[in-house]
Predict the structure.
Amino acid sequence: AAHIPSNTRTANLPTICRRYLNSDVRITRTGKPILTVSGGRSSLGGYTATVFGATGFLGRYIVNRLARSGCTVIVPFREEMAKRHLKVAGDLGRVIFIEMDLRNTQSIEESVRHSDIVYNLIGRDYHTKNFDLEDVHVEGTERIVEAVAKYDIDRFVHVSSHSASLDSPSEFYRTKAKGEQVARNIYPETTIVRPAPMFGFEDRLLNKLAGPTNVITSNWMQQYLYPVHAIDVGMALEKMLHDDTTAAETFELYGPKGYTMAEINDLVGNEIIKTRRHINVPRGLLKPIAAALNRFIWWPTMSADEVEREFIDQVIDPKAKTFKDLEIEPVDIKSVLYEYLKGYRSPSYYDLPPMTEREKREEKKYLHVID
Ligand code: NDP
């Protein structure tokens, strides 16, 4: 309740919207009737949703869920090749691409104006040649929210970050917090989502730890985090569409268990059965190197701010809502690690059927060396 601004138009929201939660026809905040009977990806009716940042890691998990339930999904994109995999998420004509530039207000307005809900997943971990973090997280958000408010879109869901704070030593967390403020100021019913570090097939957590390159850190992998499954976050974002009581709320979506990065690194090592080299470089040395790399190299490497973030443990806001409020049971990273890492395993190993109780007691490991 602390997050609901006093001037919000949604004062009576819980009582109004719960009535429509299980109906075939729902009435949106602006009075638009939506046919929600879902026969899968070919069904008629459904919401129209715009997903900014759909070409990223998390994007596919929400576009896929929306499109397969028959919603029409508008995908603003910058790069032709980056969006191709999303086309097949929905039936013919249900995933619509619009070319967009974060500095081109007209393209943003065209992307949102026919929608019932807008998701903003746009974010960047590091400065790029044309956009710094402030441009992406604050100014970009401002342009999107202004378009949302101008066309009176029913819902706006803004994806921020865990640990977002105005006085954080990390510029990423600071600009994410500013972005939240901007969104709430312009559109008070904004639903803010703060995901924990996410894992999945295309993540930057497991893939980095399991990859063939040396892992370079500054804090001896001591940062503490609650990793969350990207599929769970996608599920939560979809639920927010169907439950208007989530408007004007802040959600922190984190996994059920906390780990230090070193613990996750050990789990990864056990799963891929390979030794990888970990190099620890003092912060004072690594930060300028990372800043220079980020400046002169045009592919994603490491940024000075990412080094800074290693020294910040994930902060959990006790006032924020969580998966529990959405009736979702988040998955622990341990239980799905094999699925995501089996591709990194040496081909010299393969798995036999699950262990018997006796073998489990004796802690025998099923590993077979072929060569
Ligand atoms: P990705 O980096 O995979 O995707 C980011 C998306 O934002 C891409 O679609 C990218 O478009 C778009 N984008 C970035 N900069 C711009 C720009 N200047 N103009 C237009 N589009 C831009 O992020 P994730 O999917 O991993 O994360 C989604 C959101 O969640 C982000 O806001 C991120 O900050 C946040 N988050 C992620 C965490 C994680 O562990 N992954 C943890 C906490 C928060 P394009 O493909 O064209 O580059």
